[in-house]
Structures are given as C-alpha cells and as structure tokens.
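Aim 2 progress update. The chain analyzed this quarter is reproduced below.
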Amino acid sequence: METLKSYNPATEEILGEVEITPAEEVPNIVARAKAAQLAWGDLGLEGRAELLRATADIFVDRVQEHGELMTKEMGKPLKEAIGEAKSLGWGIEEELAEIIEALTPEVVEDGRLRSTIYHDPLGVVGAITPWNFPMSMPAWMILPSLAAGNTVVFKPSEETPLCGQAYADVLNEVLPKDVLIVIHGADDQGKAIVQSDVDMIAFTGSREAGKHIMREASGTLKRVVLELGGKDPMIVLGDADIARAAKFAASNSFRNAG
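Predicted structure tokens:
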C-alpha cells in the first residue's frame, strides 16, 4: 500500500498519512458514484437538504479539533483556522437556504405560454481542491453539488489530505454510501478524474492545470468550473483613503499564511 504523508510545515513533523488511490481505480470509483446518484437525486431537494443540515452540529462540535488540524497541516494562524472551522457548521443553514431558493423550479409566463424551469442534477461532480482553505474550499464545491442532487468524487490537495478527509468524514456520517467518495494523490489522480466519466469538474488551482482540464473536458463536453491562480487585482479609486488601502493591501497579502 502506497501512502501520502502529511507534514507540519512549521516543524516538518509527520502529522499522519493517507492511502494513495491508484489512478487506475478512479473509473470504477466514478462508476460507484454514478450508481449512487440515482437514489440520491430521487431524494428530492428538501430531503437532501435535511440530511446535509444534520452535519451542522457535528461541525460545531469539532471546531477546535478542525482548527488545530488546519494550523498544523496547512500553517495558517490558529485564530484564522478556528474561524474557518466555525464557518463550516454555522454557515450551513444559510447556504442551504440560498441553494434551495436557486434550485426551486421557476415558472415563466409571457401571456401566451407558461413554462417551468427545472434544475436537474448533472450526475457526478469531480471536485479538486487546493491547500489554502483546506476545509472551506471543499465545502464551497461539495455542499452545493450534493444539495443539487449530484454525487461527488473529491480529491483534496496532496498538501492537506488530512483536512480534506476530515471534512468528508463529517458529511459521510449522514450521507448514503458512495454519494461522496474521497480519493487521495497528486497529479495522476487529478488527471484520472478529469479523464473519467464524471459529468462536471470543479477545480481551483494553477492556470496551466486549468487549461489542461478545459482541453480534456471539451472532448466529452464536461461542464467545468475553474478558479485559477494568481494574486487578485486590487483597484484603488482616486477618492480612496490611500493609507487605509495600502494597509489593507499589505495585510491581505500576508493573510492566511500568504
């Protein structure tokens, strides 16, 4: 069994390890997720939301545990890590309410015709997340995907596999089998997801990796959501408080361990 070791970036101590998923197993994993999607989609929007709401208390109970894990594995200050951990539980109800509102069937009328717009599940979403927000990023990709009736094959960053696994473990305490499947690894596993029979790919990472994903996805018309790398631009208008803007720019450049 080949494993992926997780290191504390401050001390270089080994925090733990996870089993690497062989890339050749990814198609079978996606097939399992695809089979599970049928019943998950049939559960309905409110039924899925009810299950996902049940994770809120679990996340709240594990705030300290998850915060400490993020600081040790990713390196951000504990105060910021605790804040990220708190958002996982405290924000679920509001986020699910917004998702339900967005996905509720919409009736459109023009005096002659009456149409209803439905938002059906796509199928299986491949979610590939980075290390910088190792539990929030998975939540931003996975929670909406699941609520919409999709199943998810999730690969967290190889730099923060323990955080990604911890997030998925909470969801899997309430989810049916194979609705959320975690795979671990690096480039080979990410490429295997992109080349597999997933219906959509959500990815945050480098521009080069994003361009590769877009090329691969175009061959089978997979949907893609790409958030690609680089520092965000900051626009300072002429009537701005320059000293305040400069302070904000400097602090945000080094926030979250840079």
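The radius of gyration is 20 Å. The domain at 3-103+120-229 is CATH 3.40.605.10 (Aldehyde Dehydrogenase; Chain A, domain 1). These observations will guide the mutagenesis experiments scheduled for the next reporting period.
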